[in-house]
Amino acid sequence: MSKTFCKVLALLLIPLFIIFLSACNYHYSRLVFDSKGGSVVDPITQEYGTAVVSPADPTKYGHDFSGWYLDDEFTQPFVFENMAASNVTLYAKWSLNRTGVVFDSNWGSDVETLVDDFGTVISKPSVPERPGYTFVDWFSDEALSNPYVFSTMPGETITLHAK
To answer: What is the pLDDT of residues 86-132, one digit of tens each?
Structure first.
């Protein structure tokens, strides 16, 4: 090889080598979110030590989001400060919504609202009374066309209408 060729090659390789070495100084880590049946939360990948912003809270029908944890037994809450040095999986903690079933007796006697945790088994309340009328059933719509089937507490408060 000629000396000129070697000099040109060296001039080209040295800057590439410097760029390669400087790129090696950056260390990226990844936060992965296990929403435990809730909505998907995209992972966060960024440079170690940089400030981390908490993603939007996930949602899950019938539940309230209670925070991110480092373990799936929820003993170590995660604090969003700076990016960790290694990859981390975070686990969503959920608590059951406490919801209600409100009864609109359509001018009949009052029926007490049911209040309980999402998923709790419920049954029909006492029949409302209205002079001159016979109670038919509870309906989920004001048009009284969709009979309600009592099974478990819904994930959000609902109003049922008497017919």
So the answer is: 999 999 999 998 999 999 999 999 999 999 999 999 999 999 999 99
CA distances from 57 to 51, 92, 107, 157 (A): 18, 9, 42, 21
* Cβ count near 150 (within 10 Å): 14
Neighbours of 63 (CB within 10 A): 20
- pLDDT tens, position by position, 51-75: 999 999 999 999 999 999 999 999 9
For residues 41 and 60, the answer to whether their CB atoms sit within 8 Å is: no
| Structure-block tokens of residue 89 | 């999986």
**pTM for the full predicted model:** 0.67
Contact between residue 106 and residue 130 where contact means Cβ atoms under 8 Å apart: yes
pLDDT at 6: 56
Distances (CA, A) of 144 to 106, 113, 128, 130, 136: 11, 19, 16, 17, 10
Q: To which residue do tokens 């017919």 refer? A: 163
Residue with tokens 């090659």: 9
- At 109, which amino acid appears? S
Give the other-Cβ count within 10 Å of 115's Cβ: 13
